[in-house]
Specification:
alpha+beta; Alpha-D-Glucose-1,6-Bisphosphate, Chain A, domain 4; 34% strand
Length: 161
């Protein structure tokens, strides 16, 4: 059976340690408005973007330089009929090394095409992983949401609603 969970993969010449450290620097690639700790097992943090999206996340699995699993404990979307749509889903970061290259496979377990937010969330995650996180890994500077500054075209559109 094929999985329908959203997945994207990036390949870099940087080490698994570099990739792991970038992922755990959530303020460096997702949002500067993260509150809480984002690196160790059982850390919890809050994400919010204006009044459009906020969620509470717990790190439920952390294997240094190999894997990180987040659990979305609480979620609110202003733009979906089911405001709690992400609750219980698991964004997962898997890091592998092969022939001097490091692959990061990001899968948001539970984010499936049946979700109302799927297209917007797919496009946003793709941008955060393939653009912002990749830049953080390769240059040391990502493109996270700033204070009251939307990151993606989707977020700009949502904040105008």
């Amino acid at each position: 059976m094929d999985t329908q969970d959203f997945t994207t993969t990036l390949i870099t010449n940087h080490s698994p340690e570099d990739v792991f450290n970038a992922i755990t620097n959530v303020r460096g690639w997702w949002s500067e408005e993260i509150e809480g700790n984002t690196a160790k097992l059982n850390d919890e943090f809050n994400y919010h973007y204006e009044d459009v999206h906020h969620c509470k996340i717990k790190l439920t699995e952390v294997i240094p330089n190999q894997k990180i699993v987040w659990l979305i404990e609480e979620n609110y979307f202003k733009f979906t009929a089911d405001e709690k749509e992400w609750t219980g889903t698991k964004p997962t970061f898997e890091i592998t090394e092969n022939d001097g290259q490091t692959a990061l496979r990001f899968t948001h377990i539970g984010l499936v095409p049946d979700y109302e937010c799927f297209e917007i969330c797919r496009d946003s995650w793709t941008n955060y992983i393939q653009n912002s996180l990749k830049k953080l890994i390769t240059t040391g500077k990502g493109q996270p949401n700033g204070k009251d500054k939307p990151q993606t075209e989707n977020e700009k559109r949502l904040s105008e609603k």
